[in-house]
Amino acid sequence: MKLHTNSIIFMLLSIWTLVVECASNKKLLKEAKKGNNNIIKLTDDNFRTVLKPTRDSHIVVFLTATQNDIGCTLCQAMEEEYNLLAESWFKTHPDGINNKDTTGDRGLFFAKADYSDGGNTLVFQHFKASQVPLLYVFGPESDPNANINTFQQLNIPSTSSSGDERVNMLINSFTHYFELENYKLFKPIDYVSRTITTLSLIGVLFLMKKFSNIVFMVIQSRILWACFSTFFIIIMCNGYMFNKIRGSIYAGRSQSGIEYFQAGMQNQYAIETQIVSFIYGTLAMSALLMAKLIPYSYTYFMKKQKQYNAALSAVILTFLFLTIIFFFSSALMYVFRLKHGGYPFKFLK
């Protein structure tokens, strides 16, 4: 009789534990649906309730600070990446649960506290966060009396890996660490962009057909092809593909303000490509105009028998273009010195 009673008590406790765990997962899912991108927003009011024990799922906590005056470029870069990380999981696991057939109610949920939002000072104090960004993971917990100080810190991939590359690295890490199934990168379809692209393409084809004579004239223009080729070469030589492959952020932040150039030849901001392309483009255009415009101007005035004007225009234009070339070449050398401190050449201080 005693054994039978103990069995009943044990069975009731098991059922109660299961009910509490299910309720915890449902509560986490409800909180996730309230936030953007299925991410639970942690505040001073709810973080103890969200992270409290008695759950059968993992919770990943992301501590960040995206405010511009804080100057955390990695936080800003990882903002969209963390959103994509959560969206990819919930795309194939809408209830946040891994696989009920193999893992029961064990799942994965995402939470975030952004210092820039305010109202979460206690969250950062609890984690003793002296720097950001940080990734913490809370594992499954069956003891309702346990505290919320049991967590582990996850490594964030280096800054050399960004964009989809870093997201894939985190997905692979989570899949192995949490024993997850069917977790792959999912990028939502931008229907607005596709619609605009389609309508623009239709419009371009219509205009090309209507003004076909002008189109053929443009296609056969050697000057336009030369300008396009030069522009393409300048863009590619200045790191456009590097930015696309590495997913370079647009610019950086430091205590002194915005950073436009990143030291070293293996790293760069996206804005560097625009600045250096502008410098090279100005130099190329100045050299071209000096070779073409000066003789044209000289010939034009000579045909009108204005020798003085011909000579004066040649001198003024030559001085103008040489001055532009001098200053922009100096700017280019200044960029080289910013990228590599040992670069010895310069025109201006």
TrEMBL record:
GO terms for biological process: protein N-linked glycosylation via asparagine; protein O-linked glycosylation via mannose. One of its GO terms (cellular component) is oligosaccharyltransferase complex. One of its GO terms (molecular function) is dolichyl-diphosphooligosaccharide-protein glycotransferase activity. The chain crosses the membrane at residues 191-211, 223-242, 275-298, 310-336. InterPro entries: OligosaccharylTrfase_OST3/OST6, Thioredoxin-like_sf. The keyword Endoplasmic reticulum applies. It is found in: Endoplasmic reticulum membrane. It is a multi-pass membrane protein. Residues 1-22 form the signal peptide. Belongs to the OST3/OST6 family. This is Related to Dolichyl-diphosphooligosaccharide--protein glycosyltransferase subunit 3. It comes from Hanseniaspora guilliermondii.
